[in-house]
Each structure stands twice: as structure tokens, then as C-alpha cells.
Amino acid sequence: MKRQPRSSPRSAKPRRSVSIVGTGSYVPEKILTNAALSTMVDTTDEWITTRTGIKERRIAAKGEHTSDMATKAALAAIEQAQIDPSEIELILVATATPDMYFPATACLVQQKIGALKAACLDVSAACAGFLFAVEIAQQFITSHTYDTVLVIGAEKLSSITNWTDRNTCVLFGDGAGAAILRHRGNGAHGVISTHIGSDGQYADILFMPGGGCRTPITRENAHQNLQTIHMSGKEVYKQAITAMLRASKKALDQAGLTIDDIACVIPHQANVRIIEAIADRLKIPLEKFYVNLDRYGNTSAAAVAIALDEANRSGRIKAGDYVLMVVFGGGLTWASTVIEW
Ligand code: COA
């Protein structure tokens, strides 16, 4: 079908095209299987598999931090894009688990890859962070501010997981994914539409209560696991489906496409039941979704970035394909983008 972008304040402006010219990803070596988890908390492989679809997740090594994983993913993306790190003008790291409060993890990545001409900042939008960062990157590129931006989603969720809470610890894992976004001439394939959104009214259904200035970790509260993920699973589940459906429709509408035009959907990798519900409501076969959560669990901001890299490198997405990426996370936050690959 010939695409006819809907008129909107954004599509009415002359736009520079923004292409993804390289992707990369990295997951730590250590695998934590459901069987191994069931020796740590009261759970079973059967419960985790049927309720979530997750079979195993990766856990960062001692001394391996978010910036280390982000750097490995970034270097793979740089290599595929065939650029020199000195060409990168902006580095965005989406993460809920920065190495430190400050400096930004993006600055640490900058140092490690030698992209010394770049401006650097972290993006805090929980699991939706990678697509928030893609939106920021494309705004800078379409406005002629920068030509080349490195976008990374990286997480060491194992560092904020309560390993005694079976409600949450079975869900999460560590890893990183990256993409190089670049203007490579008008008419080039690339990002067609983006949509981001938030609803702070639901801030308390997925959050980490401790460790910030509101509740610093002290000797007195250190045993309360306040510096770990707290979640109302059922509420998040419900909100996730609503948010991802709405976001998918927005990005498609803005792109002037229908779901039938999409060759591959790359969704946030939280729970296969959430993905099945979305496939059902959008009336598209589950086979159109790229799913790797069975191997990695939910790696938050890294999840779609890793999935995009795998789909790209395995040939699951091909030149000319329309790809829909859609995510949600704590905040609540949600985001979607349609890309002509
Ligand atoms: N192993 C075994 N039993 C478990 C368990 C585990 N790991 N975790 C919870 N249970 C138990 C509960 O205690 C509950 O027992 P009870 O009925 O005796 O109280 C029972 O299983 C059912 O729990 P429930 O919460 O109803 O399960 P669910 O079908 O809603 O699935 C989630 C739970 C967390 C998998 C699901 O709600 C979910 O995926 N939510 C979204 C989470 C998410 O995506 N978070 C990240 C957002 S970016």
C-alpha cells in the first residue's frame, strides 16, 4: 500500500529523514534458569512459564555495570553502522539502573567508546526509555541540530531486584541494546512516526521507593528492600495492554498505515500473555511479533533494543519492511514508533 501520512503539526513541517544505520546488543554470560530460581524462592518452572513465558534470564557478573553492557552494545552498533565514534554528536542512555546518580551513564559510555565530541544524557522513562530516547534523537536530527546520535537502552535490573520476592524476581534480567540514528539524505528509509506518553497518576503501581532523596537508604531501613522494584502486577498488566494498544494505533495512524502493512511488531518484552492479548486485540497473528523474553525476561529499557538488534541481524526484518515498536513502563510511560527498515 502507498503510505499517506496523516496531516499533523509534525508531518506538515518539512522533515529530514532519520535512519537506523546500525544496531548492537549485549547480554551477560551468566544464565539464571527458572529451575535455578525455584531453589531460591517458592516458585516453579511451570508457574513462571505459564504466567509469563519466561524460561531464563541473564545476570551481570560482579563488577559488570550498566555502562559496561551499554558500551558493548554501542560498539557493535558503531561497527555495523561503519562510523567512527568521533562522528557521534549525542549519546542517550535510557536506563532505570544507572551506574551512579551522576554523572550520567551516557558520560561513562562516552569515555569508554571515545566519542569525545558528543553531548551526553540519560533518559529516565523506565521500560519505555529506549523509544523515548529514539524520539529525542529524531527530534534533534529532524531539527538539523545533529546528524548522528547513539541511542542505548541498558539495565542491570539484578541490582534492584528483591531476590526474596517471588512476585517480581522471576520477571527481570540484565542486558543492553543500541542503535545509531543518522540523517543519510532525504528519501532514505527510516523512522516514519513516533509517539510518547505518560500518566503519573499510576506512578505508584511500579516503582522503587528507596534510594532517592525522599527515602535514602539508612542503617535503620536497609533491611526493608526499599531499593528494589515494587509492583502491583495485576494493575500493571491491565494498564500495559491498554497503553500499548493505544500507542500502537497512534503511531500507525500518524504514519498513515494500518496494522496489515506491518511486517514485524517488536513489543516490550515483559510477559508473553500481554503480547498475546495485544495480538488478539489488534487482530494480527502472534507470528508477526518478535519475542525473546523466554531467553532474557524483562530487561526494561534494553528489551526492545536487544530485540531490534536480534531481528535485524537474523534477517527477521528486511529492507523496506514496516516495523512497529511499542513499549510501556513505570511512570506510567508508553511509546511507539513505526520504521521503514
Ligand atoms: N511462583 C509461584 N506463585 C507465584 C509467583 C511465583 N513466582 N508469583 C506469584 N505467585 C502466586 C501469587 O502469590 C498468587 O497466589 P495466591 O492466589 O495464593 O495469592 C498467585 O500466584 C497468582 O498471582 P497473580 O498475581 O494473580 O498472578 P498473575 O496471573 O496476575 O501473574 C504477573 C502475575 C506478575 C506475572 C502478571 O500480573 C504480570 O505479568 N503483570 C505485569 C508485570 C510487568 O509487566 N511488569 C513490568 C512492567 S514494565
What is the terminal-to-terminal distance? 16 Å
**Poorly predicted runs:** 5-13
Strand order of the largest sheet: 1-7-6-4-5
**For the residues shown, what is the average pLDDT?**
95
CATH superfamily of the largest domain: Thiolase/Chalcone synthase
Order of helix and strand elements from N to C terminus:
HEEHHEHEHEHEHEEEEHEHHHEE
Helicity level? 25-40%
Largest sheet: 5 strands, mixed
The structure class reads alpha/beta
Structural overview:
This protein has 341 residues and is an alpha/beta fold. It has 2 domains: 19-182, 3-Layer(aba) Sandwich (Peroxisomal Thiolase, Chain A, domain 1); 190-340, Thiolase/Chalcone synthase (Peroxisomal Thiolase, Chain A, domain 1, 3-Layer(aba) Sandwich), CATH 3.40.47. It is 32% helix and 22% strand. It is built from 11 helices and 13 strands. Helix 8 (233-255) packs across helix 9 (272-282). The site of coenzyme A (COA) has 21 residues, from helix 3, helix 7 and helix 8. Coenzyme A (COA) binds next to helix 3, helix 7 and helix 8.
What is this structure's SSE topology?
Blueprint: H1 9-12, E1 19-26, E2 30-33, H2 34-37, H3 45-52, E3 56-59, H4 66-81, E4 90-94, H5 105-113, E5 119-123, H6 129-142, E6 148-156, H7 166-169, E7 174-182, E8 191-198, E9 206-207, E10 230-231, H8 233-255, E11 264-267, H9 272-282, H10 293-296, H11 303-313, E12 322-329, E13 333-340
Parallel strand pairs: 4-5, 4-6, 11-12
Antiparallel strand pairs: 1-7, 2-3, 6-7, 8-13, 9-10, 12-13
Bound molecules: coenzyme A.
